[in-house]
Design a protein that fits this description.
Mean pLDDT: 93
Strand content: 25-35%
Shape: globular
Helix content: 10-25%
Distance between the termini: 17 Å
Oligomer: single chain
Largest sheet: 10 strands, antiparallel
Low-confidence stretches: none
CATH class: Alpha Beta
Number of helices: 5
Length: 215
């Protein structure tokens, strides 16, 4: 397990996830992203990094909560494109949200990354988040985007780098829970949210009791 560090890594840890990882059913990808590392290359060449501890699946035009429910538009075209790319959108006139595109090209789906456990570049994250500490750094999709400086400039970029990458360092996750998605108004009954149970950076929720899953 990598110990948290204030400065960024000079080299990104682990290995990049291949496109084949994303080119699968979204409900397989979403829980398997837990424990992986989201790395952001900074302008000085170092890497700010967080471990993914919470995700949500959004699948196709028949999912009312998925942006693809509106069909192919200039905004949603990324969802229909190749897997293994970023889908970043702006919401409520103030927040960004980061997703990874999944499933074969032409089948719109994505996994929203809802929370990160900071690993490196903590000083930079705190500066971007107004010197906030602990879970307030990266608990929730808007907070993690601010901490990692993810905005529309990083929409539709490869998740194999050079700026954004999702990587595995071999750290396994066994205490995975699932339950209804949160922060949406429709299709709230689908248990398509996944998280590392007990991690302090996971979003707080009043959702029903979670289902436990084997890692």
């Amino acid at each position: 397990m990598i110990q948290p560090r204030p400065s960024g890594f000079k080299r990104p840890p682990g290995r990049v996830l291949p496109v084949s990882f994303y080119e699968r059913p979204t409900l397989e990808v979403a829980p398997e992203l837990l424990g992986c590392l989201l790395c952001r290359r900074e302008t000085d060449g170092t890497y700010t990094t967080g471990r993914i501890v919470e995700t949500e699946a959004y699948i196709g035009e028949t999912d009312p909560a998925c942006h693809a429910a509106a069909g192919r538009t200039p905004r949603t075209r990324v969802l229909y494109g190749p897997p293994g790319r970023s889908y970043v959108y702006f919401t409520y006139g103030m927040h960004y949200c980061f997703n990874v595109v999944t499933e074969p090209e032409g089948r719109p789906a994505a996994v929203l990354v809802r929370a990160l456990h900071p690993v490196s570049g903590l000083d930079r994250m705190r500066a971007r988040r107004g010197e906030r500490q602990g879970p307030e750094l990266t608990q929730g999709p808007a907070r993690l985007c601010e901490a990692m400086a993810i905005d529309l400039d990083l929409n539709d970029v490869s998740l194999a780098g050079p700026v954004l990458s999702v990587r595995s360092d071999g750290t396994g996750v066994s205490n995975i829970a699932s339950g209804p998605r949160i922060g949406i108004r429709v299709a709230t009954d689908r248990p398509w949210r996944f998280w590392v149970e007990g991690d302090p950076f996971v979003s707080r929720s009043r959702a029903p009791a979670p289902r436990r899953r084997r890692g």
